[in-house]
Write a structure and sequence with these properties.
The protein has 227 residues and is mainly α. It has a domain at 11-38 and 151-219: hpI Integrase, Chain A (Orthogonal Bundle), CATH 1.10.443.10. Helix content is 45%, strand content 7%. The protein contains 9 helices and 5 strands. It has helices at 16-24, 28-40, 44-48, 82-102, 111-116, 151-165, 173-186, 191-198, 207-218; strands at residues 55-56, 61-65, 72-76, 136-137, 144-145. The strands form 2 sheets. The protein has a 3-stranded antiparallel beta sheet with strand order 1-2-3. A two-stranded antiparallel sheet has the order 4-5. α1 (16-24) crosses α6 (151-165), α2 (28-40) packs across α7 and α7 crosses α9 (207-218). The longest helix is centred in the middle third of the chain and has 21 residues, at 82-102.
Length: 227
């Protein structure tokens, strides 16, 4: 019998079968975003704040910046998502061209990023990858512009997909980050690699995924049950 002091809270994850079912019940933009969260391990708000310049198809990497822009890391850009992301960019470009003609293409640029793109807050590269469907008034300039998408929209879309898929595991977009980390470790990646991909400052924040992966190995089933 496990003593109370030996018990600890481990991250909640979705199994690979649950993820397949979730993605089958997620369509359009929200489906793309949910797969992106799992495929990269990024946080919900990091996904919302992605800019066009953060995508690097050649190196298959995504650059993640904190809201202030001082901390920067990179993670995978899943090859399976590249065609869909390129199609999304074509649609995004048409929106941008319309905004340029209307004079509403300026976006908020963090100080660190503005050093890379000085006096260029209307450039295509700095536009949000996932913008609002309409204009909002910028708190910085007072001008009409497009902010990043409201994260609540994706939260609601995932909740709907979870219900439609019949998944009983309590899951939110952040569960996809937990699943990303745990599945990487199960696949043989070391904790330091996962720590870097997740952007954890301390390895102790990553260790629970190692413990969960080990626990799942202890509960391994016969390979016949996997057929």
């Amino acid at each position: 019998m496990t003593k109370p002091e030996d018990s600890e809270s481990l991250p909640v994850i979705l199994s690979r079968m649950e993820l397949v079912s979730l993605f089958l019940h997620s369509e359009g933009l929200y489906g793309l975003q949910l797969r992106l969260l799992y495929g990269t391990g990024i946080r919900l708000m990091e996904c919302m704040r992605l800019r066009i310049s953060d995508l690097n198809f050649a190196s298959q990497q995504i650059t993640i910046r904190d809201p202030i822009g001082h901390k920067v890391r990179t993670t995978f850009l899943p090859s399976t998502l590249i065609p869909e992301l390129k199609e999304h960019l074509e649609q995004r470009r048409r929106i941008y061209d319309t905004d340029v003609l209307a004079g509403h293409s300026r976006v908020h640029v963090p100080p660190a990023l503005s050093l890379e793109y000085p006096n260029n807050d209307s450039s295509w590269e700095l536009q949000y990858l996932f913008p609002t469907t309409g204009y909002v008034v910028s708190k910085d300039t007072g001008l009409k512009t497009r902010h990043h998408q409201d994260e609540k929209l994706l939260q609601r879309a995932m909740k709907k997909a979870i219900h439609a898929a019949g998944i009983t595991t309590p899951a939110t977009p952040h569960t996809l980050r937990h699943s990303f980390a745990t599945h990487l470790i199960q696949s043989g990646n070391d904790a330091r690699t996962v720590q870097k991909l997740l952007g954890h400052s301390d390895i102790s924040t990553t260790i629970p995924y190692v413990k969960l992966a080990n626990k799942l190995r202890e509960n391994a089933k016969s390979p016949l049950d996997a057929l």
